[in-house]
Amino acid sequence: MAVDKTVIPLGTVIYIPDARGKEVILPSGKKVKHDGYFFAADVGSAIKGNKIDTFLGITNKNPFSHVKSDPSKTFTAFVITDTRIKSALNTLHKS
Question: pLDDT tens across 38-63, in order?
Fold first, then answer.
């Protein structure tokens, strides 16, 4: 997930319930169900303030209903502080 690191620090884990169970296609071509967890690992030049950019997988269609191009739209998200989850996602991201 790309973030404005002045709002969401890099390394932050965010859980977005609306993303859980959505099918995404990995770069390998494998189809998987998303677990709803996102790892703040990137910054985008257009990502400013209270905004994120999530990896959508390899697709022509947006699998996440929470992702909108309209900045006035919001969605439910939770910052995850559980060190076990943060460690697991950090390890996966570095793989």
Answer: 989 888 788 888 888 876 666 667 77
Residues in Cβ contact with 5 at an 8 Å cutoff, skipping those fewer than 6 apart: 40, 43
**64: buried, middle or exposed (CB in 10 Å: 19+, 13-18, 0-12)?**
buried
Whether the model clears a pTM of 0.90, i.e. scores above it, the answer is no
- From the number of C-beta atoms within 10 Å of its C-beta (0-12, 13-18, 19+), residue 8 rates as buried
For 21, what's the count of Cα atoms within 13 Å in the CB-facing half-sphere? 2
Q: Do 12 and 83 meet the contact criterion of CB atoms below 8 Å apart? A: no
Query: Which position has the token pair 């959505």?
Result: 22
* Sign of the CA dihedral with 39 first, then 70, 22, and 76 last: positive
What's the rounded Cα separation, in Å, for the pair 43 and 33? 25
